[in-house]
Each structure stands twice: as C-alpha cells, then as structure tokens.
C-alpha cells in the first residue's frame, strides 16, 4: 500500500512540474521545481491558474 501511495505522489508531482514548466512563467526553473514538495507544487499550480484567469 505504501508503494502505491509513493507512486501516486510521484506521478502527481511530475504532472504538476510538467504543467508549470510548460507555462511561460516557470520556463527555465525546472531545477528549482524539482526541490518542491507536492504541497508547494499544488500551491504554485493554483496560483498560476488564478493568474491566468485574471488575464
């Protein structure tokens, strides 16, 4: 069970990092994003989504 949870967390982190790196705002910051926790990545992603909605 623990293995499945770790795998799910890893996949979610990779998904969020990919989405963030594809945005113009995070280009070239992949190394920095690699050190982020899942919670931090989710916060950054939500901030980016809100910022895009306001534009």
List keywords for this structure.
55 residues; 0% strand; mainly alpha; single chain
Mind explaining what this structure looks like?
This protein is 78% helix and 0% strand. By secondary structure, it is mainly α. It has a domain at 30-55. The longest helix is centred in the first third of the chain and has 21 residues, at 2-22. The protein is elongated. The N and C termini lie far apart (42 Å).
Number of strands: 0
Give a short account of the largest sheet: none
Name the helix and strand elements from N-terminus to C-terminus, one letter apiece: HHH
Report mean pLDDT, rounded to a whole number.
89
For the CA atoms, what is the radius of gyration?
12 Å
Structural class: mainly alpha
Fraction of residues in helix: over 70%
- Pick out the low-confidence regions: none
Tell me, what's the shape? elongated
Total of helices: 3
Concise overview:
The chain has 55 residues and is an all-alpha fold. The chain has helices at residues 2-22, 30-34, 38-54.
